[in-house]
Amino acid sequence: MSTLPPCPQCQSEYSYQDGQLLVCPECAHEWSANTETPDADDDARVIKDAVGNPLQDGDSVTVIKDLKVKGSSLVVKVGTKVKSIRLVDGDHDIDCKIDGIGAMKLKSEFVRKV
Predict the structure, then answer these.
(1) How far apart are the first and last CA of the chain?
(2) Is the pLDDT of residue 12 over 60?
(3) What is the secondary structure of 25-73 as a DSSP string?
(4) Is the pTM of this model over 0.70?
(5) How far apart are CA 52 and CA 49, in angstroms?
(6) What is the mean pLDDT of the chain?
(7) How far apart are CA 71 and CA 29, in angstroms?
């Protein structure tokens, strides 16, 4: 008997392993043999501010450096408080609204948790 899981698409019990992938001979669906690894990486990712404090959705932060707003002549000044941040994936990992400027994305290395 095979200890491999059935095909997630057609539930066929005849799946087999080909290198790092599992393959279904009936519907030709291929999937990763280690499905737990991507979920563990998402949970382990912690976004930290400039001094190492972990950030969460809804936190308030203070900008620690003058930041030029790309595409305009506006500047986010040092000490600007930003309320209710939202953490997102990517290079700029904070999504927020700043009074007088509007919606923008910030890098966590330029903020400090209040």
Answers:
(1) 58
(2) yes
(3) TTT--EEES--HHHHHHHHH---B-TTSPBP-TT--EEE-S-EEPTTSS
(4) no
(5) 5
(6) 87
(7) 46
Sheet strands side by side (includes 30-32) = 16-18, 21-23, 30-32
Examine the pLDDT at 91 and tell me if it is beyond 70. yes
Contact 27, 9 (CB under 8 A): yes
In total, the chain counts a number of residues equal to: 114
Task: Tell me whether strands 75-76 and 81-82 are parallel, antiparallel or unpaired.
Answer: unpaired
Using a 10 angstrom Cβ sphere, with 0-12 exposed, 13-18 middle and 19 or more buried, the burial of residue 89 is exposed
Tell me what pLDDT residue 28 has.
Answer: 85
CA–CA gap between residue 82 and residue 13 (Å, rounded): 53
> For residue 106, which amino acid is it?
L
Q: Using CA atoms, how far apart are residues 64 and 79, in angstroms rounded to an integer?
A: 6
Amino acid code (one letter) for 25: P
Instruction: Report whether 64 contacts 110 (CB < 8 A).
Output: yes
C-beta separation of 29 from 10 below 8 A: yes
